[in-house]
Amino acid sequence: MAAVLGLIAGSYEQIAFGYRVTTDEKEWTATADFTHHAHTASISAAAASERFVVTGSKDETIQLYDMKKRTEHGALLQHDGTITCLEFYGTSHLLSGGEDGLICVWGTKKWECLKSFKAHQGHVTSLSVHPSGKLALSVGTDKTLRTWNLISGRSAFIKNIKQNAHIVRWSPDGDKYVAVVNDTVTIYDLETASVIGTVTNPKRISSVKFLNNSILAVAGDDDILRLCDLGKETWVCEFKAHETRVKAVDSFMMEDYCVLVTASNDGFIKMWKLHLKEELESPTLLGEVNTTARLTCLAVWKPSSVQQTTEEPATKATTSKELVQELSKTKRVRIATEEVILEDESKPKKKKKGGRK
C-alpha cells in the first residue's frame, strides 16, 4: 500500500529542501514539496516530529516549519553561536545544542524555552535522548560525555574521554550507547558505563544511525555506507551509496524491511531497501532525488508512524547502576500546561502549578 512521507535536507546554500515521497512496491518517487530559505548561513542540523520540521544554522537560529499547515512557523532564538544538534522527544519537546555550550529544552506547544543549561565548557557537539525520555547524553569539545536529568537540567554523571567526541547515540533499547571520535565508534554499556567494544571506520565518520539494537549504519568521508554488528564488533555489509562523501544517514522501518536514507555532498538523497536478517545483503535502491545543492544534514518526516511517547524525564541517579534502577522503576507522569511534574506512585500527589518558571 502506498504511503506518504517526507525527506528534509539542509545545505551549505542556506536552503532546507522538502520532498514528498510516494511509495509503491518497486519504485519510490520523491517530488519537491517546499524550499525553506529562512537562514542566512549554512544549515548545520535538522530534525522532524509528527508535525514540525526544525533546522539549525550557523546563523544562530532554529527555524520552524509546520508540516501540517505547510507554512513557516517562525524562529527560536536562545543560542549564541552555531546550532550543532537538534532532537525531538516524541511530539512534546525539542532539545537543541550549540557552540555556546548550552542545551535548551523547548516545549512544542507554545515553542517556549522551558530550560536552558550550560552543558559543556566548550561546544556541544551532539546529544541524544534516552528512549525512556528520562535522561539525555551529550558530548562536547571539553572531552567529556555527560548524562543529564532533563527535569533538573543537572548532570547525573560525567565521563572523561581522551578526545573530543562529535557524535553520541543511544541504542533503540536504551541498554547501550555509542560515542564517535574521528573514525572510531566506542560502544558503552549503560549499566556499567564501561566500554564494551570499539569499531574503526576507514574514514572519519560523519553520521551514524541504529537500524536495530545491534546494527549500526556508519557514514564517513567517502562514498561507502557501512553496516556494523556492534555485538560482534565487525563490519557485516558495505556498499557504494554516492559519488562523493556521505554526509548524513537516517532510517525507519517499513512493513518487514528497513529503509535507509542517505544524503551526500553530490546533492543526492537516496532511499534504500534493506532486509535486516542474519546474513545482511547489500540494499537495493528504492528511489533518489537530486537537490543540486551541497547537503549537510537530513531528517525523515513520518506523519503517522511516529511513536507517541508519554513518559517524561526524571531521575536522581548519580551512578550508572542507580541510573538503571531509576529507569526500571514504575512511575506515572503527568504533563502540566507548561511544565512536567513527575509523580512517584508511592507518594502523595502534588498540586499542579501554573505559569512558566
Please outline what is shown here.
With 357 residues, the protein is mainly beta. The chain has one helix at residues 320-328; strands at 4-11, 16-22, 29-36, 43-48, 52-57, 62-66, 71-76, 83-89, 93-98, 102-107, 112-118, 124-129, 135-140, 144-149, 154-160, 167-170, 176-181, 184-189, 195-200, 205-210, 215-220, 224-229, 234-240, 246-254, 257-264, 268-274, 284-290, 295-301, 332-335, 340-343.
Describe this structure in words.
There is one protein chain. With about 350 residues, this protein is an all-beta fold. Helix content is about 5%, strand content about 55%. It contains one helix and 30 strands. A four-stranded antiparallel beta sheet has the order 3-2-1-28, with no helix packed on it. A hairpin with a 3-residue loop joins strand 21 and strand 22. The N and C termini lie far apart (about 45 Å).
